[in-house]
Design goal:
Blueprint: E1 3-6, H1 8-15, H2 21-32, E2 37-41, H3 44-48, H4 54-64, E3 68-70, H5 92-102, H6 113-128, E4 133-135, H7 139-142, H8 145-152, E5 155-157, H9 159-166
Parallel strand pairs: 1-2, 1-4, 2-3, 4-5
Helix pairs in contact: 1-2, 2-9, 5-6
């Protein structure tokens, strides 16, 4: 069975109707039917934590519970990352290698530093879990997908491209 990891950008874009919802919706449907193994990385909770609308954030966190969660780097100061959960200690060398591929100029003073670091966390968790297809709408990943495939052997696809991997050739 193919293993897919939904990046937060894809699932939030679908929930907020910013993306073509039918591709993500079909991927979720196929997971519920048992045709694919679908998960999100625990860092998705931290991504949702930025929402200032408390009611909306609670709704999103509740929706997130329907997905299997895989761990990523344990960060004690990060929402959703817990010592007693699936998160794990990091191999700094391998993490930094991935970070330098995605964000070679990443600087702690950048306004989006933590967002970009969390992006690395998502993909690192996916890689460490040995999953095969990372589903995203985020250009940070999509622009580097060939290099990441070459080094790590994983595939990064948009939701629409992911449907093709499942075997669905319908137009969406």
């Amino acid at each position: 069975m193919k293993t897919f990891t939904l990046d937060t950008s894809a699932v939030i874009g679908y929930w907020n109707k910013e993306l073509s919802g039918s591709a993500v919706e079909k991927i979720i449907q196929y997971a519920e039917e048992g045709r694919i193994d679908l998960a999100v990385v625990t860092r998705a909770v931290a991504d949702l934590d930025h929402d200032k609308n408390v009611a909306h954030k609670q709704q999103q966190l509740q929706r997130l519970k329907r997905f299997q969660r895989i761990g990523t780097i344990l960060r004690f100061d990060t929402p959703g990352s817990t010592f007693d959960g699936p998160d794990f200690f990091v191999n700094e060398k391998s993490f930094n290698k991935l970070k330098n591929i995605l964000f070679p100029e990443l600087n702690k003073n950048d306004k989006k530093y933590m967002n970009n670091l969390y992006d690395v966390d998502h993909l690192y968790g996916h890689i460490q879990a040995g999953r095969s297809i990372f589903v995203t709408s985020d250009s940070h990943f999509l622009n580097k997908k060939e290099k990441i495939r070459e080094i790590y052997g994983i595939k990064i696809y948009t939701p629409e491209e992911s449907l093709e991997q499942i075997g669905n050739t319908e137009k969406i």
